[in-house]
Amino acid sequence: MSVSWDDDPPGSFGQIGANAGRLAERILREAPNRQAPTVSDAKAWHAEIYQGVGLPEPYFAGQVRDSDPSYPELDGYEVEVARADGSEPPCWGSDAALVLGDLDEFERLIQDLIAKWDARIPAGVGDAGLSEADLLNLVIFLATVHGEWIRIHPFANGNGRTARLWVHYLLARYDLPRFIQIVPRPPDQRYALAAQYSLCDDDDMPLTVLFLELIADSL
User: Fold this and answer.
1) Which residues of the chain, if any, have pLDDT below 70?
2) Which residues, in sequence order, are CB contacts of 47 under 8 Å at separation 6+?
3) Does residue 176 contact residue 126 with C-beta atoms inside 8 Å?
4) Which of 82, 152, 159, 161 minimizes the number of CB atoms within 10 Å of its CB?
5) In angstroms, what CA-CA distances link 8 with 4, 12, 28, 94, 152?
6) Kind and range of the H or E element at 21?
7) Each residue of 9-32: pLDDT tens digit?
8) Straight-line distance from the first to the last Cα atom of the chain, in angstroms, rounded to the nearest whole number
9) 118, 131 in Cβ contact below 8 A?
């Protein structure tokens, strides 16, 4: 039976928030470089968010669920997520045995789409050159990336924070308003319900609609 990690350690929220804030600022500074993003980047983000925070196993920070004997507590670690609306049954992330393959597919997806968006939005242009159709398609991209990460749920915990970091990363890359906070989770219950649809029903439409509203308000 794996050691579970379901909640932040008591008293750790301030440290996590400070870590996330520094990380977000660094992502913003480095965005103009437009390096190709990787899953390894997200693993490093996750480790940085939990730097200095006592976890059940130190390697829970930055390591994913799989069958690597180097991290025995993550071998076969399955993630069950309660539904935000309180209904049953709960939802599950990818099977631990499938996580590495799913992450490979995620990386190919995001790199392919980013290459297309980089060509469409040169560095420093931001939303100035975007039509309404472009903005809609970009928000669909954001929701898809967030939704795919939530569906995989690669970490034992902290997947929502990392999904929001992916959104922050993409918004910074294209010089758009950072309309979603990393820590704490957005208090709007619509966000929790939209993430539930992504995880439980493979449906990113509610998240797309919410992101469209939020980015429109920011613009």
Assistant:
1) 1, 126-129
2) 61, 62
3) yes
4) 82
5) 12, 7, 26, 22, 20
6) helix 13-30
7) 999 999 999 999 999 999 999 998
8) 48
9) no
